[in-house]
Amino acid sequence: MFTKIGMVVLFGLSISRLTAQTILDNYIQIGTNNNLQALQLKADYNKAIEALTEAKRMYGPTVDAVGSYTHTFRDGIPLDGAALGIADLINNSNMGSVKNGKLYVPAPNMYNAGIQLTQPVFTPELKYKTKMNLATCEAAEASLKDFKVALAADISNAYYGYLYSVSLKVIILEAEQLAQKNLRSTEKLIANQKATKDALYKAKTNVADAKKQLNDVNNLIKKSAQYFNFLLNRNLNEQIEVDESIVFSNKKKYSVSFISDTDAN
């Protein structure tokens, strides 16, 4: 069994998708850079990376420089000849010092300095902390990526919604002009007694409907633009760059082709 499926496709002869994508990408970048929640999520992610880096650094060796100084105000002990041997022993052992024939125990001025190297071998707390920081970092990164994807989708939908309203206005303007032209033609026919008042009423109704639709689409354009600018966190009345390759224009030439797809069951 064969089924033929037909599609009518409207092709614009002058469409630049590269330009369109560039415009939209720029707006997505602006929205991401200006969005407060995105900035907060990025800050959380950076903090998580710093915490993870610090936790990993604690596994490495640490070097500390230590030093101390002590001054003793005790008076020295006078030495006689018999005590010199004991004094030399104390002086050489750094337990005291001999100065001007007097023995000082402890020494009046004592200095101590050195470098201490510490290397953790295994610390369960550090291992647990590293795992927790790694999980926090991964969660923060995922949250930031998910938010950026959702924000980009919202900005894209809002932009195409704005372009749709602009295109719709072009079509309604053309319809309003045709309604006005039809009304003038009908008035001329009535003046020449070639048309009835029913035709005049219908023509005026068409003009009124077109004007109402034009007013509605103007409101739609305003709301669409304000929502788009809201997503970009900028002035609601900021001018929006229109992608002319997407917006419908009655000055462009379009071609209609019929695409047939045949499926076999």
Task: Give structural attributes.
alpha+beta, two-stranded antiparallel sheet, 19% strand, disordered N terminus
Task: Walk me through what this model shows.
The chain is α+β, with helices and mostly antiparallel strands. It contains 5 helices and 7 strands; from the N terminus they run βααββαβββααβ. The chain has a 3-stranded antiparallel β-sheet with strand order 3-5-4, with helices on one face. Strands 1-7 form a two-stranded antiparallel sheet. The protein has a two-stranded antiparallel ribbon with strand order 2-6. Strand 4 (97-99) and strand 5 (102-104) form a beta hairpin. Helix 1 packs across helix 4 and helix 2 packs antiparallel against helix 4.
Q: List the strand order in the largest sheet.
A: 3-5-4
| Largest beta-sheet characterization | 3 strands, antiparallel
* Strand segment count: 7
Give the CA-CA distance, first to last residue: 5 Å
Q: Count the DSSP helices.
A: 5
Query: Which radius of gyration do the C-alpha atoms yield?
Result: 43 Å
